Amino acid sequence: MSTVAKMSNPSSQTMVAEAGKKRPFRWGRAVLLILALFWTFIAIAPFLFALTTSFKTQLDSIDGTVIPWLQYQPTTLNWQQEFGSGGAETFKTLRSSALISLGATLLATFLGTLAGYGLARFKYGIGNANLVSWFLSQRFLPPIATVIPFVLLFRDLKLLDTLHGMIMVNTTFTLPFAVLIMRDYFADFPSELRDAALVDGASEFVTFWRVALPLATPALVASAIICFAFSWNEYLFASILTNRDWKPYPMMVAGTDSVRGIMFNFVSTRMIIAVALPVLLSLLVQRYIVRGLTFGAVKG
Amino acid sequence: MKSRAKYYFLMPGVIWVLLFTLFPLVYSLYLSMTDFRMGRDPSFIGLQNYAEILGLDGGGGDTKALETAGFTLFIVLGSTALTLFLGTFMAWIFNHDLPFLREMRAVITMPLFAAPVAVGFLGVVIFNETNGPINNIFQGLGMGRVNWFIEPWPARFAIMITDVWQWAPFVFIVVLAAMQGIPDDLYESARLDTKSNWVLFRKITLPMIAPALGTVFLLRLVETIKILDIPTTLTRGGPGSVTQSYAFYIREVGLRGSFQLGDASALSYLVLIVAIIISSIYFWRMRARYE
């Protein structure tokens, strides 16, 4: 937030002054604003369309109308069905999603914070950049390439369709985000703080725990939210490694049409449920998205 | 004491990657050299799986692998090019003094956080042939209706458009951040020479955002090679199998039907090689930043 504010304020002032001086016509800016609004609309319109479709009956769901009350009579039938009569499976899979994602988030953030601090604070003989690529590698591998060994491994270790199995998998996928976000944060940290604590006789761990960690709360939250969102959205491994007991919600979404054929109203309801949480959480971490998703390669 | 402490910070993470990233890869390499099928003991057959896929054993090679790789390449190139172009263009627009900039930016990044499985279904609703919004708009513009899920090329483009919709915002926010980092005085002195926005963009903006563009380009490449969830729910690989991606095909071979885990692992290793090459370029460029 602060970076954006810092960056955009001085530049915007000069831009305004510039526009006022050199370009008497203001419509250039209007065109830019219209294009910006248009893309904003494109980004959100499919969500809104799904939302409005989720309040339709099956009959209305294929008639192409969009405005409730005016064009069609909205109904909460789909939502009642998803959470009411047929709600047991919904709640169970949402609970699985929540527990898997929370577990993976905690574990990835824990491992990532330690490793990130180490990478930012110390020099390792093997080369810090090599270590970073070691952690990042998971993010660059196509998951389909590791799913088969995981199936066999999990079968032998009796981890198929278990909570801790799914936590392990999602921790593995989200660890790169946690390591890189935390490393990036600790690297920008004034090292005087740490040195002062060390001079006072505190050990490396006490310094980390008492000085660095409390100040890193914003990065911890950002890292946790990004890990949570990616775990919540994971589908491939879930579809192969879980079955009845720990099936997360994306599998409910993917299974919608095989049960009753494509019913747009019902599909839309599940769609909205699946995307709501991570999309809303993303609003809290705006200033970390650029750094987080580029693994610190681009400062945002 | 101090020298040992630094390893304690790093070790848990390193061990985790060793167990859950490196070990599966090594295991997979071994499997790719066996004729393993579910419920049958594997026997070592060396590089035979690879020879069969690539047609080096005198057979015709795995044509289905070639077809799905072709479709994946089409999506990777098309989607990467489009997301880079659209993302950069929108970043340029947002790099002006516009009202509600931050709010619009937040809305635009929303698709990034939606589950790709759900995004595929979103496409099902949006591209719906009889009364979906896209076909209704097309009809309104007098372009007629498109059979998105029945005809091969529209189906391929439906996948690409959906992927672009989800990922153009990624390029957009990264490039916008890079543009906002360009010092204003660079523009001010250049404005003395030219009034053309295009010249300013080409001579100043583009060179300054080039490193960020390179980074998103490589990240988009590796990310799109993985594409699987969107075809799974949007087209189910159809019509026929024209929208089956390479990852989709690996899943068909190894985890459906006769569970040919050996063949699937060999197919996986071929795409891994591509991913490793791209990520090596990435790490080579990023070394200094991560040191």
Uncertain stretches of 5 or more adjacent residues of chain A: 1-24
In the CATH hierarchy, the architecture of the largest domain in chain A is Orthogonal Bundle
Largest sheet of chain A: none
Tally of DSSP helical segments of chain B:
12
Report the span from N to C terminus of chain A. 9 Å
Largest sheet of chain B: none
Mean pLDDT of chain B: 91
- CATH homologous superfamily assignment of the domain at 64-259 in chain B: MetI-like
- What is the CATH first-level class name of the domain at 64-259 in chain B? Mainly Alpha
Roughly what is the average pLDDT of chain A, rounded to an integer? 85
CATH superfamily of the largest domain in chain A: MetI-like
Largest interface: A-B, 115 and 105 residues
CATH class of the largest domain in chain A: Mainly Alpha
Stated plainly, the CATH topology of the domain at 64-259 in chain B is called MetI-like fold
Which geometry of chain A do the CA atoms define? globular
What percent of residues of chain B adopt helix (DSSP H or I)?
A: over 70%
Helical residue percent of chain A?
A: over 70%
Structural class of chain A: mainly alpha
Number of separate structural domains of chain A:
2
General description of the model:
Chain A is mainly α. Chain A has two domains: 14-81, no CATH class; 84-293, MetI-like (MetI-like fold, Orthogonal Bundle). Chain A is built from 15 helices and no strands. The model of chain A is unreliable at 1-24 (pLDDT under 50). With 291 residues, chain B is mostly helical. Chain B has a domain at 64-259: Orthogonal Bundle (MetI-like fold), CATH 1.10.3720. In chain B, 71% of the residues lie in helices and 0% in strands. Chain B contains twelve helices and no strands. The two termini of chain B are 24 Å apart. The mean pLDDT of chain B is 91.
